[in-house]
Amino acid sequence: MTNTLSRAVGSPLARLEGPAKVSGAARYAAEYPQDQMAYAWIVPSPVPRGRLDAVLTDPAEEDDVLVVLWHGNAPHLEKSDDPELAVLQSDRIAYRGQPVALVVARTLEGARRAAQVVQLDITAEDHDVELRADHPDLHTPDEVVPGVPADTATGDVDAALATAPATVDVTYSTPALHNNPMEPHATIARWDGEDLVLYDSNQHPSGIAKTLGTVFGLPAERVHVIAEHIGGGFGSKGSARPNAVLAAMGSWVTGRPVQLALPRQAMFSMVGHRAPTVQRIRIGASLDGELTAIDHESWTQTSRLFEFVESPGVVTRSMYPVPNLRTSHRVVPLDVPTPRWMRGPGEAPGMVALECALDELAIRLDLDPVELRARSANPGYLSCLRRGAERFGWSGRDNRPRQRREGDWWIGTGMAGATYPANAMPSTARVRALGHDGYEVAIGAADLGTGARTILAQIAADELGVPVDDVHIRIGDSTLPVASVAGGSSGSASWGWAVTGACRALRESGDDEATFDTTELVGKMPTDRHAYGAHFAEVRVDAVTGEVRVSRLFGMYDTGRILNPRTARSQFIGGMVMGIGMALHEESVLDPALGAWVNHDLAEYHIPAHADVEQIDAEWLDEPAADLNPMGAKGIGEIGIVGSPAAIVNAVWHATGVRIRDLPVRLDKLLPSL
Amino acid sequence: MKTFEYRTATGLADGLEPGAVFLAGGTNLVDLMKLGVATPDVLVDVTRLPLDQVTELPGGGVRIGSAVRNSDLAADRRIRTGYPVLSQALLAGASGQLRNMATTGGNLLQRTRCRYFMDATMPCNKHLPGSGCPAREGDHRNLAVLGGSDACIATHPSDMAVALAALDAVVQIDGPAGSRSIPVTDLHRLPGDTPERDTALEHGELITAVDLPVLPVAARSAYRKARDRASYAFAVGAVAAALEVKDGLVHDVRLAFGAVAPKPWRALAAEQALRGQPATRESFLAAADAELAAAQPLRDNAYKVTLIRNLTAATLSALTGDVR
Predict the structure, then answer these.
(1) Same domain, A298 and A156
(2) Which ranges carry the FAD-binding PCMH-type domain (chain B) (predicted)?
(3) Is residue A545 part of a domain?
(4) Structurally, how many domains does chain B consist of?
(5) What's the domain range around B303?
(6) A566-595: per-residue pLDDT in tens?
(7) DSSP string spanning B75-117?
(8) CATH code at A310?
């Protein structure tokens, strides 16, 4: 039972590991000292398609080198669900940047140099890396993220569109994006006898242990994954990546612990990306703004290795009630790296098209964009629209574009809705009474920097009826009770549920130890529930240069009970900052001839700098969703990037009268029309 | 990273053996070494030479030691009041941390950030002569519209150098064959058929100082930079300008463009077109057009012509109104 006297949940507790992080005491994956450590460096394929015939090393650079592994001499690996993990197993090259060899050396410098001068004997083949909406190899995938049908249809969309008094028919495109967490993927692998120990930066220690076990033919319990502190992931560390397998392989062959930390450039190949999308969206409406039909078509790409399908249309299936609704996804396999989850997969690009198209509809109908949405909004969403508009100061907005000019700046405002599914996944937690030392709460969860460790302590403290200081959280280790992935904005709900259950069980049993598995409860949870929100943006556009600045960005969210307002606010505004990046800055630029993303570092792949974030804030309704989980919480990790880019794009139109439908909105696209 | 030797320079006459290069702040060179684009055998650290002072020249003007840090130079009172365009350009560049490390000489000698040049596994006539230039057909959104060649369309990335080009700065050079001085506008080469050579410096020559002449027009000067985010980004277009107006007519003017050419682009044709003309937006636009007539934009960088035209008019117009 909840102790009504304690109030840890809901208080703005600072991150428990904060002092360790800022003082440098917290260890990230590559920072665990090891005896006889060796260092690995990946040799990436310089071609996007072909066959590797031989690897020749330069004897002059071999002083430090312990081994150069490639498919000609690498140990055999077992098959896993993920073909990307079959590293150095075949002569086939599926994309530029794919690992084709691994240098393991006594020093980092020696490994890097040997990798730079290694000679690859490659037979290159013609490649195709360009996504087009009319690509002949486009097909309907079996399923799209998150494992749902590619196509859906209700009602008669064509008839409804044909007879609708008002329609929009627009095509939006979003570029390839790369997750780029601050901490690149990194692994230290060590074999203790037949057991594999991995210090690895990931979002799912239990899952990585299982997968690595499969690849090396070991039971999961023989693989020990330690991921105590993670410098971000944004989805790119949700499952095992080649770095973990390569480090373990290098350690097996050399008999030494091996460190493999990816350089930033490698973050643009083997760890995933948000696939580019082309989306055509057609909306039919009555003249007073009642939505009668939506058709949302999406085209995207995957690799030749693995069919991962970004799913912009899925969000349209639940965002607005509309009698005639069709969504479809087509995908083409290309000679590119495999796309993966990136914060708000599907929802983030999908809401660009849907919410910008709605803005275009509002203009056609001469309706306030908030009012248009309010007509189709459920109660939680409606509250966000109303309260958000009030907090932002939306009322009295002149809906006409290009009306406000201050000096060289055109100024405008825009808005968009937000949503994200309320997810939870089965997890198990264990709690132990330690007498005078308080309680140990253990769960194999991962804290990506979000504050997961802190809110679990708050939840446990309240359930146990003790101060937070009496709770000792152990996470980030695959030998702890199995936890779900830190993904899908599900961590707090999934792990908090298990921790709540274990603490209750301990109190009710009076034992010194209790374990709780949520599998059965999660199976009964409603699956059609969502968080909602509304984003409001004010931008200014320099009439001289076309440069865009976001003067104000505000998010209002209906995300259930907020467990910790300090870390929650960081999650919301962090997502919104990433939304600024998606709207204005981020783009992985493809060179079709080389098959490469050429801006593969953080000097050239722009994310917002501090100066790009002016006034930003988030608020929330804080109404517990009691029927979802014991905390009444919905996930908050992704909703900030869902809709915020559209609010900014819509504001740019309002400022300038220029509608950009190809993200990011940059000065070169605006300048010709200003 | 290739193994290299490191030593500190003890005097200007040390010279350099083949395969050796000078090291100052290292903010660009060390990156290129990690990437395998630069592979020197020896680094000779010049930061301990007595070249870190800003001094006044006997006949007026200012001498900037080549080891003066960008942040120190930007804050120097003589620069801020006599040559504000230079201070503004410095502060528009890089980040606080980088400006604390980067030196005047090193800033001038930094290499292009063309994405093909920065990746040793890609073709590039600058890092591997004869390997071709993929940028012409590929990614060239931020590459040259002026001064490029079939072999290379790299842009010079410096903000500081654009201001120096506008200010008639002179580069002092010391080397095995003695000392010499050249205008900063002659320091950087256009690529032609030999894009691998960035500058007019011979091997072993060291920039010891940059001299700013007495230049009254520079007291009213400004730098305006457009970029893809608000801070910590290279220019996609920039203008350094100085203007003196008498009786409504342009009495004196200096103008240079950044991020449009393989070198800081002194806009002499525009200056010529402006002298004696009414100090109006129409004159400024016409002057920009005179310079940009030579532009040869490619598929994705034609916006730079519009951008520079707008920036020129806006920067000069602002200087017209800026009477101190």
Answers:
(1) yes
(2) 1-217
(3) no
(4) 2
(5) 216-321
(6) 999 999 999 999 999 999 999 999 999 999
(7) H-HHHHHH-HHHHHHHHHSS-HHHHHH-BHHHHHHPPP--TTT
(8) 3.30.365.10
